[in-house]
Automatic annotation (TrEMBL):
Residues 12-201 form the NAD-dependent epimerase/dehydratase domain. It comes from Arthrobacter ginsengisoli. Transmembrane segments: none annotated. It holds the Pfam family Epimerase. InterPro entries: Epimerase_deHydtase, NAD(P)-bd_dom_sf, NAD(P)-dependent_oxidoreduct. This is Nucleoside-diphosphate-sugar epimerase. It comes from the Bacteria. Residues 238-266 are annotated as: Disordered.
Amino acid sequence: MTVLMAGCGDLGTEAGLRFAAAGHRVVGWRRSPEKLPASIEGAAADLSSGELPPIPADATAVVVAIAADAPTEAAYRAAYVDGLSNMLDAVQRSDAPVRRILFVSSTAVYGDAGGDWIDESTTPEPGGFSGRIIREAEELLLSRLGGTGITPVVLRLGGIYGPGRTRLIDQVHGGSALIPAESRFTNRIHRDDAAAAIVHLCTMNPVPAPVYLGVDNEPAELGEVLLFLAAELGLPQPPSGTAESRAPAGAPKASGEPSRGGNKRCSNALLRSTGFEFTYPSFREGYRDILAGVGVRYP
């Protein structure tokens, strides 16, 4: 099987390495293809530009793993809507035997659910421009591929953490972490499990469902995660409060895009029903593995 990774950042590269390790040919598109490992055939591409390399003639699966260049509405639209549209144009112009296109999405399309459980049957209600634009891209994928014989798959990932993604650890270690005054559930997935899920959904024999939630087994309150990290680091418990309570007097209040993730509990039952197994079923295993690898940074 030949897999085209349209977008080969950290997550796309890890997924590409796993495809290659399984014996598949992998072609990776990114702006700086020279940064890709040898097992991924790199090609220079900017999805938002519309000027893309030819689709590999024997490509049977495409993974679209896009990231916006900046946290702005324009950057999100250029990456997710324009980039995906250009990718689909290229596939539909080609004669490649593509049978499956997986789009890496986000649980941000659900917005805030007040701590309730949600799954693939829950109607998306984005709370900000990021979720709204990513949802628009999902709908574009599903509508464009209808009747083409190509199976669309949307993988809505929770907050990705892992190597190089240590924001919460850094906050606890640096003393800036705050336990929310009110309950706030968070959902996450280790980078390696996210990459493994991409490979699994692209290679499984049964035809996959249109949408899957890519989160680990245990939605957790943010405060619980911060307390766990403090204990693992041997540090005092972070204080409780809000971001505003730590802002300097007279500082402007944040506005615009709501806090990422919202307050919801995402179920991964559908993904697990396909036979997928997590290496890091909860934040505890994942963060312990990260700390074991970078402990020298956190004396």
